[in-house]
Amino acid sequence: MLARPGQIFLKNLELSGIVKVKPNVGGPRISRVALDTPLRSLFDYLTIPGAEPGRLVSVEFGHRQMVGVVVELAQESEHPAESLKPVLAVFDTLPPLSPEWLALCKFAGHYYMRGPGEVMLPALPSKLRVTKGWERLAKAMAKPLLEKKPHAAKKAAAKTPARKTAAVAPVDPAVMEAAPAGGLPADALPTDALLADAPAEDVLRTEAPRLLPGQRAAAAALAEAAQRGGFAPFLLYGVTGSGKTEVYLDLVARILATPPTGLDAPASQVLLLVPEINLTPQLEAGLRGRFASTPIAVMHSGLAEGERTRNWLAAHLGQARIVVGTRLAVLASLPGLRAIIVDEEHDPSYKQQEGLRYSARDLAVWRARELGIPVVLGSATPSLESWARSETHYTRLELAERAQPEARLPAVKLIDKEAERKNGRASADGISQPLREAIAERLRRGEQSLLYLNRRGYAPVLNCDACGWLSNCTRCSAHLVMHRQGGANRLRCHHCGLEARVPQRCPDCGNADLAPLGRGTQRVEEMLAELFPQARVARIDADATRLKGSAQALFDEVHAGKVDILIGTQMIAKGHDFQHVTLVGILNPDTALVSQDYRASERLFALLMQVAGRAGRAGMPGEVLVQTRYPRSPVYQALRSHDYPGHARSLLDERRSAGLPPFSFQALLTVEARDLAGCMAFLRVAREAAETLEDCAEGWVVLFDPVPRAMVRVANRDRAQLLVESGSRAALQRMLDAWMPLMQEIRPRVSWQIERDPASV
Ligand code: ADP
Ligand code: ZN
Ligand code: ZN
User: Fold this and answer.
1) From the CB of 577, is ligand 1 less than 6 Å away?
2) What is the DSSP letter of 404?
3) How far is the CA of 37 from the centre of ligand 3 (A)?
4) pLDDT at 179 over 70
5) Which residues are within 5 Å of ligand 3 (an ion), measured at CB?
6) What residue's CA is closest to ligand 1, atom 21?
7) Using a 6 Å cutoff on CB, does residue 209 contact ligand 1?
8) In the predicted model, what is the mean pLDDT of the chain?
């Protein structure tokens, strides 16, 4: 009776060959299934043959059919057998997800306070999550998924900026047979034991440059760890332009050359994470150039669904040997995973800010530990967490100098805006006289300038001079930003998306003279065009790159030297290897200095070091000009002396004496409701409930007072938060586990979330 609709469905699948139905005699009777529902548990179903751990199954949940993942088998259920429904179908042409992957997702669910299914299912491409697609997928899997596309590889190699191809020579396959895997210069290899099993398919396109002594030492340490086996966490601290990528590629080459551990063992795989989609093409091109015929799969949220599915399957089936992706790739199924590399590990983009609020960097380290493999966290400005750990239990590797001959770290000059104003040199347009002269000088020399401003749009707000009216969003505690769109002006909220026309007159006093206040990237772009009519100006920010592929096209133009002045937001700050930029101007960095968030100054420093790092990467000397009102601030002083370690030490001292992370662990309870009073009432009850818990009563876990969030209202919803802190991660976990069920009881309900290791408080 219960299984009726399912039986019909099963029949269909049986006909299609996807599932074979046999009565299940003896053996476990229950399949425990993870489903994508907010209930934090597994669901029991009567098992059918094949419904084993790691398998995708279809089940009835409520009155819907859902795809789930079998996590474990059991003999008995807590529920009476009559109330259980059977598993409807098994996708048994798909090899099961590994115990390692299941464990990773279970851990992530527990740690980030979600159900296992809320981690597992969203980590799968959506085509696997509907049964009607299984048949076609089964067919697709019969063929190699990542066909060797020489054309695509060539295109990627051609896209590689000139420097990477400088060492390119057409490679004679016959010569390559004899060459070391990955084309490592023979002297870079500490032993030749690794060479014996070099996969013959690894035909090289670009040769590796001869590694510099620092790179060689770092690469040797990684190679040694990879060969030895076991968990080995590394922090690769290398100044901007020091050639961290080559160190990664060297490790990749060695892993690819490592033979599988047993007869049936999957081929070895490497996972490389980058913080942003627009950094994947640069790394992908480098990899395709170096490992021409090695199947590489890219994973990020910008892929079309078909491609995402194909790449995911290629990784899961072990066909893809290298996976390059953004944070979501850390949850990929990789049966042969032998090393993980996290580039720009400090980057806040590794933290997912909605749904499952995970840190891909932290999960990468956890995964590496469970697997017993090396993990490399690379950065010129490591997170304070990683830096502190590299003084205790990570191995720190250093690249102290820039890789290219003659490339030096740029000279940083602070332009005191206050002094400029007093001397009557203030500029009405926000580009100071010294910066203007420096740009003009670059134009004369045919070099590129890069201006960084972390504000998109034309102006951050529209203002009435007569009565003080500001263009505020009616739904958020934020200003509407003025944007210029095809000659017309629009007002737009960056938080809720509200759009409005620019009013003719002030809504409050009728004044017809409304003026934009402040400057965004669009306005600076316009000013630059006026100041330097002969220059080719380009803007890169989220608005200019909305169309798929347009960001890459813009970056290509910069690399090709078709741009003289580049203005942009943090999109241009990170990771890009601009070869012709010799001047970096930082327009308005001060706002983060006055933030209440204790992480703001760490982030500002990292970002400024990264932007500054875009200057002078090839032989030509670089210069960085910072326009600030607080030139004496320690952040700018440290920037001037390129002193990351010194600055990190003083920030860590501050954190230690304040008992802040990484010297404590935090969780943030955030709530959202129609009004603030509702939020605060919920938090007060939640806090009272927590006070009764042992860890809080005994002082292991400290509860802060509920407070409204810094930005209270977003999209007509008010928000408040409560911070929880502990010196012990275990105590915090225990307390949160006990607290969750208490909060589920609180009425009236509001929507709430717990964020572990919050990025901003
Ligand atoms: P990072 O990621 O550390 O900022 P990159 O990996 O982008 O630096 O390297 C900076 C530049 O130095 C690149 O143009 C790269 O091709 C070049 N480079 C790296 N290693 C070497 C080397 N051993 N010899 C010559 N050039 C190198
Ligand atoms: Zn007015
Ligand atoms: Zn809004």
Assistant:
1) yes
2) S
3) 29
4) no
5) 473, 475-476, 493, 495-496, 498
6) 403
7) yes
8) 87
Tens of pLDDT, residue by residue over 647-706, are 999 999 999 999 999 999 999 999 999 999 999 999 999 999 999 999 999 999 999 999
Question: Distance between CA atoms of 193 and 621, rounded to whole angstroms?
Answer: 42
Dist CA 309 CA 215 (whole Å): 36
pLDDT above 70 for 52 = yes
CA distance 613 to 452: 12
Reference 268, options 280, 283, 258, 278; nearest CA is 258
Distance between Cα 750 and ligand 3 center (Å): 21
Expressed in angstroms and rounded, the spacing between residue 473 Cα and the centre of ligand 3 is 5
DSSP class per residue in 339-401: EEEETTTT-GGGB--SSS--BHHHHHHHHHHHHT-EEEEEESS--HHHHHHHHHTSEEEEE-S
Task: Tell whether ligand 1 has an atom less than 6 A from the beta carbon of residue 211.
Answer: yes
Give per-residue pLDDT as tens, 292-342: 889 999 999 999 999 999 999 999 999 999 999 999 999 999 999 999 999
Ligand 1 lined by 242 (C-beta under 6 Å): yes
- Surface-to-core class of residue 486, CB atoms within 10 Å of its CB (0-12 exposed, 13-18 middle, 19+ buried): exposed
| Closest C-alpha residue for ligand 1 atom 10 | 241
DSSP H or E segment with residue 501: strand 499-501
**In this structure, are residues 416 and 629 in contact, taking their beta carbons and an 8 Å threshold?**
yes
Ligand 1 pocket residue status of 246, Cβ below 6 Å: yes
Angle between helices 676-691 and 729-744 (to 10 degrees): 120
State the DSSP string of 168-206.
--PPPHHHHHHSPGGG--GGG-S-SGGGGG--TT---SS
pTM of the model: 0.88
Give, in degrees to the nearest 5, the angle at Cα 569 between 600 and 714: 60
Alpha-carbon dihedral angle through residues 588, 414, 412, 435, given to the nearest 10 degrees: 70
User: Whose alpha carbon is nearest atom 23 of ligand 1?
Assistant: 211
Ligand 1 proximity of 188 Cβ (cutoff 6 Å): no
Residue 477 CA to residue 714 CA, distance in Å, equals: 7
Q: Quick one: 590 exposed, middle or buried, by C-beta within 10 A (0-12, 13-18, 19+)?
A: middle
* Pocket probe mutation, ligand 1, options 210, 344, 404, max atoms within 8 Å of Cβ: 404
Quick one: pLDDT band at residue 487, thresholds 50, 70, 90?
confident
State the distance from the centre of ligand 2 to the C-alpha of 710, rounded, in angstroms. Answer: 27
161 within ligand 1 shell (Cβ under 6 A): no
Q: 434 is written with which tokens?
A: 């010294």
Q: Which helix (H) or strand (E) holds 717?
A: strand 717-726
